[in-house]
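Hey, I was hoping to borrow your eyes for a little while. I've dropped the whole record in just underneath, so have a look:

——
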Amino acid sequence: MALLFNDFASWGKHCAETGEPLWQAVLTYEVEQKGRTEDVIWDGLARAYDVMRDAVHTGLTDDMTSRSGMINNGAKKVAAAPVTVLSPEFQMLISRALGAKEVNSCMGRVVAAPTAGASGILPGILTTIQDLHKLDDRKIHEGLLIAAGIALIIETNASLAGAVGGCQAETGSAAAMGAGAIVYCLGGNVDQTFAAVAVTIQCMLGLICDPVAGLVEVPCVVRNASAAAIAFSSAQIAIAGVNPVIPVDQCVMALGEVGQSMETKYKETALGGLANTPKGREIENMVLVQDVEILPDED
């Protein structure tokens, strides 16, 4: 949000001086950057949230089997599991985050929030928090604006891309966006909203990006679910008034520093981590052979 400020401290100061809610500055940014009216932007937010809800529904009702076979209706299995270790609400969150991300892995329509690889996190979080607390769509749309503002500041000072900063920058940022949105939507103040972002980054720091066979499927889908869970726990910690100790802007700085220090093989190259396990290489060879068209000899 360089038109107004580049860090969380300045965003908070702006709101304190103007009395504006956090989302207003992001809306102003959108108006000035895109040259659109506020009504057009609100309509766009509504459409984006509709796509998120559709992705959750599709992931829990349609056949979600990816071409590679690595993704095979996991969300529906979690939702219908006869043995549960989670509360019904927690089980709902996990299955929804899984489902929306499975839609992406199966080439369906999603909202990149902030990336397609993290596209299950905000849908799982926002639809669940809306159902649990009976929030209207307008409140969720405001939460989306705040999530966008969080992403813009992280992007300015670190990265949102797995290829640049590892999965901490991708699912970690999405979880931070979701945690901040939760706290705002439930009436938390600015400090609590930013604390949720800080705690989430602290919990996600150092996570590598190691997609098996180079596909955004394993471990990406299950990481969307775990990131949604971390967002919920971080939001609870923050809205209870727990001090994250390290200020949110310094957490973002650490995110960028860790991303820069991370070896290339851990940044979406499929050269390290789970992608470099024997099973990972076996799957990679199978997928590559499956996708190669063998042309006849010219002779």
